[in-house]
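User: I'm preparing a small set of examples for a lab meeting where we compare how different chains pack in three dimensions. I only have the primary sequence for this one, and I'd like the structure in token form so I can line it up with the others. Please keep the answer compact; I'll paste it straight into my notes.
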Amino acid sequence: MRTPILIFSLLLGSAPAFAAKPCDELKTEIAAQIEANHVSSYTLEVVANDQVGERTVVGSCDGGTNKIVYTRGTAAPASSAPQPAATAPANPETTPPAPAPKS
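Assistant: Understood. Below is the structure token output for the 103-residue chain.
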């Protein structure tokens, strides 16, 4: 009978250790640790749990509802203008020859 009460007391006493940390505070702490390792080109982003995908999770915040993801290098700046579509280089084996110029 004493064991369940003891376990419950320990879990209740350790509840503040599992308290939710705000995302901005945790993101600042993680950034400080990354910069202490002399990494200068990186991005940290707060995303919802279902938006993580294949990215590297480096922290969990707001009671586990959000994750902080790390990306090496810098992200391309976001712009409102649409970007032109990239074209693949022509493959000479599958590309028909250009028509001859008229003389």
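A couple of notes for your slides: Residues 23-36 form the longest helix (14 residues). The first strand starts at residue 42 and ends at 48.

User: Perfect, thanks.
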